[in-house]
Amino acid sequence: PRDTVDVVVVGSGGAGFSAAVSAHDNGAKVILIEKEPVIGGNAKLAAGGMNAAWTDQQKAKNIKDDPEIMFKDTMKGGRNINDPELVKILSSHSKGSVDWMTGMGADLSDVGRMGGASVNRSHRPTGGAGVGAHVVQVLYDNAVKRNIDIRMNTRGVEILKDDSGKVKGILVKGMYKGYYWVKADAVILATGGFAKNNERVSKLDPKLKGFVSTNQPGAVGDGIDVAANAGAAMKDLEYIQAHPTLSVKGGVMVTEAVRGNGAILVNREGKRFVNEITTRDKAAAAILQQTGKSAYLIFDDSVRKSLKKIDKYIGLGVAPSADSLEKLGKLEGIDGKALTETVARYNSFVTSGKDADFERPNLPRALNEGNYYAIEVTPGVHHTMGGVMIDTKAEVMDAKKQVIPGLYGAGEVTGGVHGANRLGGNAISDIITFGRLAGEQAADYAKKH
Ligand code: ADP
């Protein structure tokens, strides 16, 4: 029958597609449902990279890394409330996940720096193009190649169980078909987070009331409710991340890689105020303390040339430029004289290799080539760290820490991997690794039932 499978995957972001492809490759018949009319979720919008340690791509660039260091960076960035067992999986499987994606046709050969990482480990396509759209496209192509049944405009509404509490499928609502059952031995929730739902966000963290969000419209958290109704326990819901750099002019998120590749942050007074590549929570808090609750990313043509994505921001008109820092200051209402001094001082740190003001750990290039650019930025709600509690097999647990048989979770809908604060580049890593794991586990489980 058409609506009976081994595994049903809910959500078409990176976690959902990874789960669907891996469940299929482990022998399961799969249906993937997506409530929106488009695939990709927030994963498709991810601009940064995919964190992974000790990869061939890093070796080719003489970057020394180790899953142990990635583990430590992730725990520290998450203020040590992460579930260490899940972080171990994230870091130790990360190279395997990059290889898995590469094997399916992904290009992750460019390796850059993101906040909170002690080495360059953020993998992205050559030239620094957006990683999320690329990864989702590769996964989608592979799902299509495998003839996986993908149903758009189809919302997962309620998990169905038998009398013994085992999952038996999911009640869905198709835009045209209405309500119907998809029968399955296992359900994988990969429904993403709820950053777009400000009512929900501000109830959990009142400081974020009225904040804009970087997320796609579907990121409202109905998947969390589906899980909760099925008895899932929740973890760390109150930890919600503001991305520090949302463009004030255009509402687009400006990837952290702009800073990673050399941009500095200044306030209207033309002064730096923070280590630009600190963790997101710290950078966001520092920007909110500046005059006008915003700041400017300042960079030159050498930074622009190092990252394709920047041309997109220029094309959108959110990165005005001038041939001197004085003029740029005048254009944007920044103190131009102070800005000129700030950049000269920063350039001297690049030469000496040491940031005497804010101890920025990477100083990739001086800002002294061609035109200068300024992007005005302010924080926006970006990622919800908390969610459904899972174990090391991606099985969803109830309040007594008992597994709900047949229910799996992966990606932003889950809590525990990122603790109190997610590092840039760890989302794509999370969704590929745990999506793939959930797919394997669910396929195995379905075989036995
Ligand atoms: P992740 O990064 O964890 O893969 P994404 O945000 O990229 O998460 O993707 C989650 C996807 O799940 C989005 O496309 C979203 O529209 C979809 N989704 C959310 N809730 C439901 C639901 N109840 N039924 C079907 N799809 C859902």
List key phrases describing it.
single chain; alpha/beta; eight-stranded mixed β-sheet; five-stranded antiparallel β-sheet; 15 helices; 19 strands; elongated; binds adenosine-5'-diphosphate; signal
Helix and strand arrangement:
Blueprint: E1 4-10, H1 14-25, E2 30-33, E3 50-51, H2 56-60, H3 67-77, H4 84-92, H5 94-103, E4 110-112, E5 122-124, H6 131-145, E6 149-151, E7 154-161, E8 167-174, E9 178-189, H7 198-204, H8 222-229, E10 234-235, E11 240-247, H9 257-260, E12 264-266, H10 280-288, E13 295-300, H11 301-306, H12 309-315, E14 321-322, H13 325-332, H14 336-352, E15 372-384, E16 387-389, E17 395-397, E18 403-409, E19 414-415, H15 426-448
Helix pairs in contact: 1-6, 1-15, 3-4, 5-15, 13-14
This protein binds adenosine-5'-diphosphate.
Adenosine-5'-diphosphate binds at residues 10-16, 33-36, 41-43, 155-156, 190-192, 218-219, 222-223, 226, 411-412, 431.
Task: Walk me through the structure.
With 449 residues, the protein is α/β, with parallel strands linked by helices. The chain is built from 15 helices and 19 strands. The chain has helices at 14-25, 56-60, 67-77, 84-92, 94-103, 131-145, 198-204, 222-229, 257-260, 280-288, 301-306, 309-315, 325-332, 336-352, 426-448; strands spanning 4-10, 30-33, 50-51, 110-112, 122-124, 149-151, 154-161, 167-174, 178-189, 234-235, 240-247, 264-266, 295-300, 321-322, 372-384, 387-389, 395-397, 403-409, 414-415. The strands form four sheets. Strands 1, 2, 6, 7, 8, 9, 17 and 18 form an eight-stranded mixed sheet that branches. Strands 11, 12, 13, 14 and 15 form a five-stranded antiparallel sheet that branches. Helix 1 runs parallel beside helix 15 (426-448) and helix 13 crosses helix 14. The longest helix is centred in the last third of the chain and has 23 residues, at 426-448. The protein is elongated. It starts with a strand and ends with a helix.
